[in-house]
């Protein structure tokens, strides 16, 4: 089996491939991981209309490494006036410069160029991503594989945006339906997947024939700027891809501008449900196209018929990736009474083997939380549970000895429905365990939330598998599987977890509209 690996050799980090040959591991060392200070993709300016620019005010803000608080650099602190220039550039590129009339083949070729450059620069992107997000290097490299796959996928899908010929009820008419790009798309992306959340949106929009204005999260702008640098090298025309940066101070006014500007035809946002609702309201006056991928509160159900070893592996994969900071991370662990104690004990044993620390170091599996607000939230949720009678079985505290933003992987049992951990998404390395007795009880608990992004359950009872899959109220379900994200699959939720789908062939739909053409009086 061939797989990506991260190894230390001769005092340097390398990314390469490894092949299992019998009991021996054959390693092919490739390009060494570059340090941040000499990384050619590190940028300090925003990218607008094919030029690298600062804020008109000259203001900047710092980007910090959450692992140690080190300042990685500064980027422009842009206001709505700066962003208006990016919107104007994208609008002119779409209409005046003819991007809306570009051929699918042309767009596909540019996306393929971008994909090839991202593949070539995997190590450089990974170094930046780990430095600004805190995730371990192996996870950064995994995200790059995932994120790049969207560019490859939509490069192929660009040439399959088909229309329809519809049989007419009248003999002298021809009915045709075409799919056309909506225009400028505003893309607002989160910090937890600073590469993949951009490519999943931008590649689909560009494949459809749209131009984009990308607003990355203030915690992780450097990855977005690295992708813009590679887009420039790939040959995209000026104004097709724009990346603007801002601190939290100006984020609300920038979001409002993107939502209310007559020149922006669509908004795509990944982030919290609260912010998503605000953007939804702001888009309402203009009846603007919007795609929302919002918060989750994913149930992870283990039935007594489950293969516990597979369920434990699924739990570790789903919960602790990116230190629990993923929208589809398992949040509520519902464990059937007969296997509850055994599952919890074995889970604690596995958690005890996790290595916590700076993601740039060898062997680290759990990095820091992204910022002080997130650390405070996780700590508050655990304290609330303890005060109301829950039991901390392991972890349950911050680790200032490692750095300012570390929190131990934690297991909390005896959850009740009056606790924050029971009702809200913790977005951190905390396993919240609820014991249940019947399938009906598990489904009632699982569905008793306004969130509906992802869910997971483990069972070897075939009838139960079909019943629970039908009744579980989420947009995505992992059945005997803890890792469900795939480029080919439609990603999205129901209830207050979002609108629309990303990835898959359906990802294009967010950026096109159907035009009906009726040809009459034909002879």
Number of helices: 14
**What is the assembly state of the chains in this entry?**
single chain
Strand order of the largest sheet: 17-18-19-16-15-21-22
Strand content of the residues, in percent? Answer: 15-25%
Report the mean per-residue pLDDT as an integer: 94
- Ends apart, CA distance between termini: 62 Å
Characterize the overall form. Answer: globular
CA-based gyration radius: 24 Å
Biggest sheet character: 7 strands, mixed
Percent helix? 25-40%
- The low-confidence parts are 1-32
Q: How do the helices and strands line up, and which of them pair or pack?
A:
Elements lengths: L1 E8 L2 E10 L2 E9 L13 E3 L2 E3 L6 E5 L6 E6 L3 H15 L9 H17 L1 H12 L3 H21 L6 E3 L7 E8 L2 E5 L7 H13 L2 E5 L5 H14 L6 E3 L7 H10 L3 E7 L2 H12 L4 E5 L4 E5 L5 H13 L9 E7 H15 L20 H16 L3 E4 L15 E4 L6 H4 L6 E7 L2 H9 L3 E2 L1 E5 L3 H10 L4 E4 L14 E2 L2 E2 L12 E8 L4
